[in-house]
Amino acid sequence: MFCFPKDPSVSHDFTTDTSDPTPFRGDNHGTECAGVVAMSKNTLCGIGVAFDSKIGGIKINIEESMDVFEARALGYQQSSVDVYSNSWGPKDNGYTVEGPGRLVSKTLQSGAEKGRDGKGNVFVWAAGNGGDKFDSCAADGYVNSIYTIAVGSADQDGRQAYYDEDCSAKMAVTFSHNSRPTGPQVYTTTLDGRCTSGFTGTSASAPLLSGVIALALQANPDLTWRDVQYLIVYTSNIDILTVDDLATNGAGLKFSHHFGFGAIDAEALVTRARHWTSVPQQLNFTIPATQFECMISNGSTCELEFQFTSELGANISSLEHVLVSLSLSIVPTANDSLWNLTDYYEAEKDGEAGDWLQSPHPRRGDVEIELTSPAGTRSILLPNRDYDFVNTEGYDNWPFMSVHFWGEDPTGTWTLRTTFRASSGSVFITNVTLTGFGIAEGVSGNSNRGLCQNCLRGCGDVCDVCSELRLNYSLACVSTCPNATIEYNGYCIAGSVIYPETPTGNSADGTTTVILVSVAAVVVVTLFVVVLVVLVVVLVTRKRRKDRFSTTTTATNVYWSLPDIDDNDDETVQI
């Protein structure tokens, strides 16, 4: 039997109006997600990224999962919850366009601005598993919110998982896929008390990142929701990934449409979090395209320029998120067939290229939108979606968000370019606005003074990764361990150390490994080590619509809290 403390105060079943969100038998998805984070430190199946956790849960009815129910779930106990980890969303079929309703949008904003005693709730979101259907998280409105952190998936060799979706809103990736035929996926647990080595998808990435964020908040409870996003931007490691679209923005930050700013580096993120100074107040500006309308057809392109000057009054010199909102409709010709979401479209691959569906009719998936900053950084806001054959619906005031301009100065000319590759029909674009969020002064990674001797990788005075050893109690880099410390797993640990144990109990393959964090509860392993060796467990149910490598159909949200390391209040996280 797996052990974990429960927290009824942050649990609720909205289908029965009780505090018991126990999932239905066989509904393993939520348990698998929670397991990546919260399994207790024992010998049964492994150890969670944020172990010794208190667990809670929220359950709603999948058939009634509408705006009001989602808002109640995401807003439940916002003052007590630190991180909401969401492994759900719109369908990953390549042609669905869906986002949060008005109430959910307000709930996300309220949580970020008022939750956690004003420091803000952190909302982590799985980027989606429709990559093999040419889907893009640009069509997922939950991911495109500035208040959420979209995380994708990489395999054991640092390549993009075959199901992972591209979009400009994705911030980073974690390991959650093993592409080798005989290799395990992410180890976690199931409802029947067994270990499984088959959990995969971005559903696994979201709780892994949530666990790392929980440790960062444990190390520095004063971090705001925006601080957490800055930490991801400045500590993620893109150099260990296989990137075919690597670019560097005007602020010197490397990024990719596949991987965001790179792989989550747990050690670097938590290390820098301990010494992080909160970023200044967020500012914003909006530039409307006054009376702008554009009709494009037959492979043509429409360009729109936005001019940002100091007269706008925003005083922003360093960007965070950039958001383009627009309405777009497909205008078929008289001879074109109409296709909506309930139709099934059968077509052949496009001959020689073999990478998109050839359609004789105009469709929404033939539209591509890209934004270029004054610094020349190019971000694809909407790639072609080759399975999106719909032409009776477009995008209605849709927010396309990009993190690729992070740190850039917005001053100058922005260019929005829309291309329609269909051979018939047209696209009509209107209601275009560009909104930027940022700060008056740039942040270059903040400072960890005095920690940078013997440093392998860092930023200024910040040492994210030591070249040899690290003191677990001060995080300083050293070449040898001092007296009264024990060298273990790259750390010098004061006092006794717990070595890996062979788990007992029911394991899917009988060979699982437990690796330990330092006794100060600061994570000591980086991305690809964490997931390959960490096993976890909890009892929860899942949420709705998005089949992120799960066949279950009920609701899921999970909370947990962490033990203190600095005599601060417990941190609480929700899945």
Automatic annotation (TrEMBL):
<keyword id="KW-1133">Transmembrane helix</keyword>
<keyword id="KW-0165">Cleavage on pair of basic residues</keyword>
<dbReference type="InterPro" id="IPR034182">
    <property type="entry name" value="Kexin/furin"/>
</dbReference>
<dbReference type="GO" id="GO:0005802">
    <property type="term" value="C:trans-Golgi network"/>
</dbReference>
<dbReference type="GO" id="GO:0016485">
    <property type="term" value="P:protein processing"/>
</dbReference>
<dbReference type="InterPro" id="IPR022398">
    <property type="entry name" value="Peptidase_S8_His-AS"/>
</dbReference>
<dbReference type="Pfam" id="PF01483">
    <property type="entry name" value="P_proprotein"/>
</dbReference>
<keyword id="KW-0720">Serine protease</keyword>
<feature type="region of interest" description="Disordered">
    <location>
        <begin position="1"/>
        <end position="26"/>
    </location>
</feature>
<keyword id="KW-0812">Transmembrane</keyword>
<keyword id="KW-0472">Membrane</keyword>
<feature type="transmembrane region" description="Helical">
    <location>
        <begin position="514"/>
        <end position="540"/>
    </location>
</feature>
<keyword id="KW-0378">Hydrolase</keyword>
<dbReference type="GO" id="GO:0004252">
    <property type="term" value="F:serine-type endopeptidase activity"/>
</dbReference>
<dbReference type="InterPro" id="IPR002884">
    <property type="entry name" value="P_dom"/>
</dbReference>
<dbReference type="Pfam" id="PF00082">
    <property type="entry name" value="Peptidase_S8"/>
</dbReference>
<dbReference type="InterPro" id="IPR015500">
    <property type="entry name" value="Peptidase_S8_subtilisin-rel"/>
</dbReference>
<dbReference type="InterPro" id="IPR008979">
    <property type="entry name" value="Galactose-bd-like_sf"/>
</dbReference>
<keyword id="KW-0732">Signal</keyword>
<feature type="domain" description="P/Homo B">
    <location>
        <begin position="278"/>
        <end position="442"/>
    </location>
</feature>
<dbReference type="GO" id="GO:0000139">
    <property type="term" value="C:Golgi membrane"/>
</dbReference>
<dbReference type="InterPro" id="IPR000209">
    <property type="entry name" value="Peptidase_S8/S53_dom"/>
</dbReference>
<keyword id="KW-0645">Protease</keyword>
<protein>
    <submittedName>
        <fullName>Proprotein convertase subtilisin/kexin type 4</fullName>
    </submittedName>
</protein>
<comment type="similarity">
    <text>Belongs to the peptidase S8 family. Furin subfamily.</text>
</comment>
<dbReference type="InterPro" id="IPR036852">
    <property type="entry name" value="Peptidase_S8/S53_dom_sf"/>
</dbReference>
<keyword id="KW-0106">Calcium</keyword>
